[in-house]
Each structure stands twice: as structure tokens, then as C-alpha cells.
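Lab notebook: predicted structure, single chain.

Context: the supervisor wants predicted structures on file for every construct in the current expression panel, including those that have not yet been purified. This is the next one on the list. No modifications to the sequence; it matches the entry in the shared construct table.
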Amino acid sequence: MLQALELAARGRLHCPPNPAVGCVLVGVDGAILGLGYTQPVGHAHAEVMALRDATQKGHSVQGATAYVTLEPCSHQGRTGPCCDALIAAGIGKVVASTQDPNPKVGGNGFARLRAAGVEVEVGPGAYETRELNVGFFSRMVRGTPWVRMKAASSLDGRTALPNGTSQWITSAAAREDGHAWRARACAVLTGIGTVLEDDPRMDVRLPGIRGQPTLIIIDSRLETPTNAKLWGAAERKILIYTAINDANRREALAARGADIITLPNPSGKVDLAAVLRDLGQREVNEVHVEAGHKLNGSLLREGLVDEILIYQAPLLLGEGPGIAALGPYTKLAQGVSLEWVEATRVGADMRMRVRMAGRDRF
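Prediction complete. Output recorded below exactly as produced.
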């Protein structure tokens, strides 16, 4: 199963909105017969790739065991049911990490395998599979993406100087690592404040990247400049969520290739919870937030953030904006409760991940 998990990770960047799945076919004598992982959307899933690999190598898979990181699908989607492919090939046993959270599958794949006489074991690698596909699980169970907020700060929690200077608080190694986290997301989300103040490209600049995440801009009054640097990035989808219906501004931004979605809340700003519901409908699994302290604060106050990714430099800056505009609180219990996930050194900096308490237990 460890090998199947390693295979699954290979497809992580190109398979969304599908989950990243790996499959290893093992013969009755213990020999590895075929390997596979999920291909780009619309192409073969891990099980079919492993079966093809075995065929190309001249191996019979009759009576073999398939180690797969997620329940084989049982429905006709963009591709055919993987459970049927395994049954037709003569697989004798399937060892799967966990049940597919997709309600179109949800145990049906296991049921069809068992009905065909295939032995099924479930459990090994369940935690790792869930972590690898946390966005897919979130979208299937909650109907909304997994939201990861990224920030870079000094040791005393400042993300910029009082005059707005922030380039660069953290090291080149931390920035490169941050691009890798951007790359694994289906979408990168920012606010109009960041667009106007920093004029960022908000794309992934790493070698070997075959496609860019969708760019999401929260822009209540449609102030995104038509000459901003973000338009010059590699081809990608751009969604602008707004609270107004300004026909001229909509037309100008649409002419640059953006889709404009109007989702106002009662206060005249963008309804952030509605944005996430809309993104779930658009098959977005993970949202990577890189925004200013005001939008970060709004997302946190509304309980819409699942995880925070912080790069912290060994630097003290004193005054300046923090990660998120929260409070002021009068009691410690009012603070946002978090749980540690990891703390890892990246170059000269520390990368820390924390989650909202109990948030991933859906």
C-alpha cells in the first residue's frame, strides 16, 4: 500500500477534480504485475492504468490482488466503472485504503466487487489517502472546497511594515515551497486589496507545471485593473466575485477573459460562504488563500478557513499588520482554536501548518 500511496502522489497535480489514486497489482506469488495512478481528468483511473501496465508487460492478473488507495468507482462518469474493469480482469482480492466519499460510489464499488466473488479488505493507508485528497473529501461531504490560508510573517507575526513593505520577509526557499502549495490547489484566492497594493501575478512559477490553478478575486466593487499583472500570467481561468452589477466594469473585465459572479451579502460585500458553495459546484477541491489581513480576518470570522499555512522568518519587525484582522478580544477563549499539523524548517524559515480544531473530521 505504501507503493500505491507513492503512485497516488504522482498524480496529485494533474488529476483534479478527480481524487489522486494509486494502484499496485500483485500476483499470487507476490510479484508486482502492474502499476498505475490517476491520469488527467477524462482519462484512465489508477486501476485501469495498472491493468494496462500488466498487459503491456505480458502478465496475467487472474487471481491477483489490487492494492488501491480509494474504493474503485462504480459509476459511469467521464470514464467507466473501475470495479467492473477489475472484475472483468479476474482480480481475486482488492485491498483499499478507504471508501469513496462520492455519493455516486459510497460503498457501491465494494458491494459490486464482493457480489462478483472478489475479496475486499478496507483500511490500510486510510489516513494518508484522506490527507492526499482532503479537498476531494471536503467537496464530496460538505459541498465546499478545503480552504487553506497561506501567510508569510516575521517571528512576531507581522506580514509587512507599517508602510506596506513586505518583499521579502521570508527566504527564496520558502517562496518556492509556497509555489508548490499553490500548485496543488485547484484555485488561488486573493482580494482586491492585495491586487491594488501589490499588483501580483498570483500564478505558479515552478518548472514542469502543466496547468495553472484558477485565480479567484474577491472584488466587491469591481475595481480590478484591466492592466494588472495578473492578466499577463500563463493561460488560466479567472473568476471575479463581486457585490455590484456595473455593466461597464463587467464588460471590461469580461473582455480580459474573466468570469464575473455577483454574490452580495446584506452589508454590500461579497458573500464569502456563497463563494465557497459556488466553487464546490464548479468542482474546486482545494482553495489556496493568499490575501491581506482584512480578507483573512473575514474568512476566519465566518469560520470558512480549514487550515493555515504559515512561513515564519527569524526576524522581528515590531509594528505592522498581522496575519488576520481579528478581535479585539477581551477573553482568551474568544480566540480561534487551532491544532498543530506540522512544523518543518524550509531554508532559513519555519513552515507551520495548523487546522481549525476538529475541522477535518467530516
